[in-house]
Amino acid sequence: MFIRQRIDAFVKLGKILENLPKEKQQEWVTQAYNHNTWFSQSSVETALKGIVRLLKEKSLTQWLAAYPITEPEKPLKVGVIMAGNIPLVGFHDFMTVLLSGHPLYAKLSSQDAFLPKVIASLLTEVEPEFASMIHFVESLKDVDAVIATGSDNSARYFEYYFSKFPNIIRKNRTSVAVLSGKETEEDLKALGGDILTYFGLGCRNVSKLYLPEGFDLVPLLKVMEPLGIEAIDNHKYANNYDYNKSIYLVNKVEHLDNGYVLFTANEALVSPVGVVYYEYYQSEESLKEKLQENQAKIQCVVSREAWLPGSFSFGKAQFPEVSDYADGVDTMKFLIDLKK
């Protein structure tokens, strides 16, 4: 199967997802939620919307034009251990492996075992030749290379177990927002989405705010209320919010609370579900130094109109471009360079 044929298949997949009948989408939402109650309707819809954006013909063609993709003389078995923290979080790896021409051996997370198989089924309907290239497996045996995403703890296991294979091992990361004090109400609403989409469970969710001295957080708490109301309807999110609130109250930890999200000063990057950490910075130079120090733990940075170099605009954290690789590691180059 030639690369153009593979691209065309994914473009067609994107069009199918974009025009998916409401009743079919609702069926998927119900099934996904039954497997994992973190996968709400809005979470699944947002994930599908993000995939549709990736599968535009112009985006795929421009992305792949940067690589010398040829048909592999000896296609290698690429094992992919997929995370399950948000719906279809492993799709980019799924797509990249197949576009590279290598067969995929995917070990799905038990938290996201339904949606990837539905997407794979649609893709093979569009292009039957993919059927022999897609394998869902219980364990990775007899593979030639590995891409694994997990926690810091599981990464240590992956690094030991797969050390003899070419590999990409991803660890815990989170995302942060940098505010300047010039943000509008619309900016703050968009930032609220970066924080609460997927209930804050993704590595591209903002869990930490860097604020200029004297910044007033109250307007952000107010504009986040509609999103918070939706989030608190999920019993798992509500349990986390209630638990962390009780801990702060008992331990007399200073915090702000709009009834749905807690904000507290903390120098750590990763906050618990239902909590956002914040920290003040005194100068742009000191801020950049802080971000550089934590570079290995930050997936992305958001700021107003992406004023900070290398950042995304507010509201764009969950909608990366197809060339925005997780952890900044070029997965396609890794796959093209594989040799038996």
List the defining traits of the structure above.
340 residues; alpha/beta; Aldehyde Dehydrogenase, Chain A, domain 1; Aldehyde Dehydrogenase, Chain A, domain 2; 2 domains; 7-stranded mixed β-sheet; 5-stranded parallel β-sheet; 12 strands; NADP; Acyl-CoA reductase; CoA_reduct_LuxC; acyl-CoA dehydrogenase activity
Would you summarize the structure shown here?
The protein has about 350 residues and is of the alpha/beta class. The protein has helices at about 5-20, 20-35, 40-55, 55-65, 90-100, 115-125, 150-160, 185-195, 220-225, 225-230, 235-250, 285-295, 330-335, and strands at about 80, 105, 135, 145-150, 165-170, 175-180, 205-210, 255, 260-265, 275-280, 300-305, 310-315. It comes from Rapidithrix thailandica.
Explain this structure:
The protein has 340 residues and is α/β, with parallel strands linked by helices. The chain folds into two domains: 3-172, 3-Layer(aba) Sandwich (Aldehyde Dehydrogenase, Chain A, domain 1), CATH 3.40.605; 174-313, 3-Layer(aba) Sandwich (Aldehyde Dehydrogenase, Chain A, domain 2), CATH 3.40.309. It contains 13 helices and twelve strands. The strands form two sheets. It has a seven-stranded mixed β-sheet with strand order 8-9-10-7-6-11-12, sandwiched between helices. α7 (152-161) links the parallel β4 (145-149) and β5. α1 (3-18) packs antiparallel against α3 (41-54) and α1 runs antiparallel to α5 (91-100). The mean pLDDT is 95.
